[in-house]
Amino acid sequence: MIVPHEPSPTRLVQLLREMISEGNFSMAVLADRDGLLIAAVTDDEQSSEAQSVAAALLQRAFVQVQSQLGMAETDEFSLFDVNGTRWVCRPFQVGEQTMVLAVIVPNRNHPYRRLTTRTIHAIQQLWQA
Amino acid sequence: MSVQGNLEDITVADLIQQNCQARKTARLVVRTGDKEATLFFAEGHVAHAALGDLQGEEVVYEVLEWTRGQFELEPGIAAPLTTIQRPWTGLLLEGARRIDEKRYPPSNEASELEPLTHSEVKEMEIDGILKEAADQVNGFLAASVVGMDGIALSQFTRSKKVDIESVDAQMTLLIKLVSTSLDKLGAGVIEDVLLTTESAYVLAHFLENHEFYLIIVADHRNANLGNMRLISRLLTERVAKAMPK
Questions:
Q1: Cβ separation of B197 and A87 shorter than 8 Å?
Q2: Do B189 and A77 touch (CB under 8 A)?
Q3: Nearest residue of B to residue A109 by CA position?
Q4: Which residues contact B135 (CB under 8 A, 6 or more apart)?
Q5: Across the interface, do A69 and B182 touch by the CB < 8 Å criterion?
Q6: Which among B68, B103, B138 is the end of a domain?
Q7: Is the ipTM of this complex over 0.85?
Q8: Under an 8 A CB cutoff, do A79 and B196 touch?
Q9: Could you give phi then psi for residue B167, rounded to 5 degrees?
Q10: What fold, for A9-128?
Q11: B173 touches chain A (CB under 8 A)
């Protein structure tokens, strides 16, 4: 199995911070397929722990979805709640590892797709550097 | 430089959505038969619309009904005045509602020959709504109204590639899995769930009672996600009203 070089957590956090700042997201979490948190950033330090737990839960649910439903080609899973918040999970590959980028977008009309795609590419490049 | 085209290739709703989402300043001239309407976009809104002596929202609702004709989009031309305040999403929803009403006018006449039960009539009504989805959603592949037990109340498919029963069951399982996490997150009640794959969008929109939801499956290449969401929201309301008591 190919294990890509793991980048510095500081750089990953920086990438996530740039993304949530540019997109006005309230939270971003990068986790591996097993639900282990690799990096997490929120726009509110006081709620960072709760939001990290939240994202990890969502990510685990997503992994369950992929493995139980065989939706291997799933590119994105997102949901809206009645408060207008959009919860997004995007799986991607780094070498042979599956990772998940989860973000919380407070405003449902806020674009997030391009920004998360760009961050995923940056993470992939960082890992393979 | 202006862009010209036919309404058979791109709908007025799509033109409004694209220009408003891109927050463009532009003038859109739409022609059908001997009618010509002009719409102006500014800062993410439809600012003004005119058709003969008519101005404002009513022009937009009429133009949304036009399915044949030509359009010409000229960027950079500002609206001469503002006659519309309603957000573009509201205009499209109201326009779609009016089109539905015209297509299926409410009838007060009870048929003496009607042998069907109330429940059967309601289910037929839902079947009709799903068929409408096929006409209104770009890249439509299939639609279904499903209970939280994974059993469909009504299904309609246009593609043999989609196993709609399997989609119903999988989406129900997915929603149940995620609901467990969401309860712990303290998130609000789920309104809709979107699954994006390489080949399709699968959008599940909950009915108000959260015991059923509407699923629409559309081809990834041809679908317009914004249009899909708008239509889904509109049809969900109608399905809710048509649900057997």
A1: no
A2: no
A3: B21
A4: none
A5: no
A6: B103
A7: no
A8: no
A9: -60, -45
A10: Beta-Lactamase (3.30.450)
A11: yes
Q: Which residue has the tokens 């097993």?
A: A34
Using only the alpha carbons of chain A, give its radius of gyration: 14
Domain positions in chain A are 9-128
Sequence-separated contacts (24+) of B122-127 with Cβ below 8 Å: B122/B242, B122/B243, B122/B244, B123/B153, B123/B154, B123/B244, B125/B242, B126/B153, B126/B154, B126/B239, B126/B242, B126/B243, B127/B154, B127/B156
Closest chain B residue by Cα to residue A113: B196
Domain tally for chain B? 2
Could you say which of B74, B103, B132 is where a domain stops? B103
Q: For the full predicted model, state whether its pTM sits above 0.80.
A: no
**Digit-coded pLDDT (tens) for B160-182:** 777 888 788 778 877 777 776 66
Determine whether the interchain pair B188/A82 forms a contact, defined as Cβ–Cβ distance below 8 Å.
yes
Expressed as residue numbers, the domain containing B71 is 3-103
Q: Which of B88, B92, B180, B185 to mutate to test the interface with A (most CBs of A within 10 A)?
A: B185
